Amino acid sequence: MVKTFLRAFLKPLSFIPAIVMMYVIFSFSSQDGTASGNLSYQVSEFIVETVNEALELGWTDGEEEYYIQKIHYPVRKLAHMAEYFLLAVSVSFPLYVYGVRGIWLPLLAGAICVGFACLDEYHQSFVAGRGPSKKDVAIDSIGAAAGVILMQILCFIGRMTVFRPLAKNKRQA
Asked: Is residue 109 part of a domain?
């Protein structure tokens, strides 16, 4: 009785991480072009300065600036992939909890993530200094595909190692 109540109460809460992730992505997309560029520039700067200090390379300010500029674009695109990777994981989990299995899980989760990527790019067309990009949708889709694949692997491992032995024990009892 208590287990049934807890499941019924907790199941809908499994969607909260996906909703939070969608909000985070939407918030980043709401930044104007300058703010968005500055944020990724700061991340690039942090990476270059950390590498310079950790490896004791002794780069000058000019060399650091060169490397910051060199990695700035890849950092921006990796951020896109990471956001949609996390979105795919956070969308796949509640779908799995609600019984979506097999090929339907990656298809549905992937469709939700790619659909959100398209809507997000459309949303960017209304933000100053930003615009929609098919390339960004493709990059987002790669991140989403990686997240969906990871969830498929984790769900398979869980079924084989945790849930199948539990089912055998229940049948034997």
From this structure: yes
